[in-house]
Amino acid sequence: MTSIAEIREEYEFLDADDRYRLLIDLGRALEPMPDALKTETTLVRGCSASVWVYPTRREDGTLHFLADSNAAITKGIIALVLLTVQDATPETIVAADIEGALAPFDLRNQLSSNRTQGIPNMIALIRETAARYV
User: What is the DSSP code string of 80-95?
Assistant: First the structure.
């Protein structure tokens, strides 16, 4: 998996259209999420598109998230969010500055408000999930 720092470096040099394509490519690269996991329980509330996030706990105690969306850009956004916390311990995820890691991408100014309105809810769901495991 590519790191958030590597994606940020590439993102900085792209124009708006290529930034969209990069986000779409990130979404396409997400591990497939089985349809059976796309339920009301895993649905992120407050997103204009449907977004599902499902956590799994690994034997080493880290959390691995499966995610999907019915919108390509939104799927790329959740992929970007997951790059900041994927396969980390619950304690690390709870303490992570996810917003800070995403700040250089300036998503609020790069994308429409419809596309970014659910980001805080995605982050909150991931944090809440991790907090249950702490």
Answer: HHHHTTTTB-HHHHHH
Per annotation, catalytic residue among 4, 23, 47, 111? 47
Cβ burial, residue 81 (10 Å; 0-12/13-18/19+): buried
Give the C-alpha distances (Å, rounded to integers) separating 94 from 6, 18, 29, 123: 23, 32, 25, 10
Q: What is the pTM of this model?
A: 0.92
**Cα–Cα distance list, 82 to 15, 17, 106, 110, 130 (Å):** 23, 22, 17, 19, 13
Per-residue pLDDT of the chain (134 residues; tens, 9 = 90+): 578 999 999 999 999 899 999 999 999 999 999 999 999 999 999 888 999 999 999 999 999 999 999 999 999 999 999 999 999 999 999 999 999 999 999 888 877 776 678 899 999 999 999 999 99
- Asked: is 4-133 a CATH 3.90.1010.10 domain? The reply is yes
Q: Give catalytic status of residue 47 as yes or no.
A: yes
As given in the structure block, the two tokens for residue 103 are: 């700040």
Domain ranges of the chain: 4-133
